[in-house]
Amino acid sequence: MENNTIILSFIVPIYNGALYIKECVEQILKNPNRELYEILLINDGSTDQSGIICKQLEKDYPSTVHAVDIENGGVSRARNYGIKNAHGKYIAFVDQDDFVSENFIFYTKLQEKESDIIILNWQGWESRILKENKPTPEKEVVFLPDDKEELIANLLYPTNGQLKDASLVFPWGKLYKRDFLLENNLYFNPEVLICEDVFFNIKCFLAYKKITYVKSTGYYYYNNRTSAGSSYNENACSIGIKSNELITDLLSDINSDKVRKANYYSILYRYWWCVVADFYHVQNKDHLLKRADRMKKLKEESCYRNAFNNLDNEMLSVMDFNQRLIMKQVWKGHFLLASCLCKLRILMRKRPGK
């Protein structure tokens, strides 16, 4: 039965997050007016103590926290379960090792403006210590359907300075109107195993009628090097190519040079992800020459060949230093040099304190 008093549903997919769940949930609970929100903990077949912790949190906060165990199927299926079973007018996705602000619930006041999506700023934080968010005047920017191409282009290729702190690419750091998602059949695609966030938000940006961007930090992202995105994946190449195909197909009806260039940049990011998650991950013991040869062969795949053919210095300038340095060598065909730079990157990361 629908609970009409719930304004906001926090959806938290859980997988082997025993170290983080309690802290994440208790930070959400610092928001006032608990009768106005719910926290859905969706345990995606964890093999550690996550399920037990979730049930205990439900027992401790029975009117707000609801825990459910589902068969392991990945974060997309867990989020989809949350969309279908939430009671709130708006939905906010939260990763198990991240925090939301203590004032997150107050952003629901924008429901009176009937925005399909409310986008907030985000900031990173390290060492599990929340940095103080300096209060700044909240400024709202409204995006209407004519702005779709601008939003999608900046989701794929962040060049608009006004949007540099916005959580465009991620599902977190936003409030999605649940009816908007249901009526437009907007769910995560389980076939997209890398950049599933990109695929989902492109679909949302193609369908919205009104988006409100609030220039205020509402979400705190923890750069967790043991998370799925930084884990060793020997299937990274096939996963990346499949994601390229699905995302490019989704964009096929948009006749825009800006979006086309942005998609090339996004494809290059997935090339980089293959390098990090497979070829040059610390758990990969292949010889440098073999890794360099695999980089060369991957670049010859049509999706990556087209992207590198359209790479320019402007795109490189948006990348971080390590990525820019290595991708430039790949672009020039200097695969052995790129291989050595990647090996150096691994050694630097293994140094104490890194």
Q: The CATH topology of the largest domain is what?
A: Spore Coat Polysaccharide Biosynthesis Protein SpsA, Chain A
Overall mean confidence score, pLDDT: 89
Shape: globular
How many strands? 9
Order of helices and strands: EHEHEHEEEEHEHHEHHHHHHH
Structural class: alpha/beta
CATH superfamily of the largest domain: Spore Coat Polysaccharide Biosynthesis Protein SpsA, Chain A
- Low-confidence regions: none
Explain what the structure shows:
- The structure is a single chain.
- With 354 residues, the protein is of the alpha/beta class.
- The protein folds into two domains: 8-222, Spore Coat Polysaccharide Biosynthesis Protein SpsA, Chain A, CATH 3.90.550.10; 232-350, no CATH class.
- The chain is built from 13 helices and nine strands.
- Strands 1, 2, 3, 4, 5, 6, 7, 8 and 9 form a nine-stranded mixed sheet that branches.
- Helix 1 (21-28) links the parallel strand 1 and strand 2 (37-44).
- The longest helix is centred in the C-terminal third of the chain and has 23 residues, at 257-279.
- The mean pLDDT is 89.
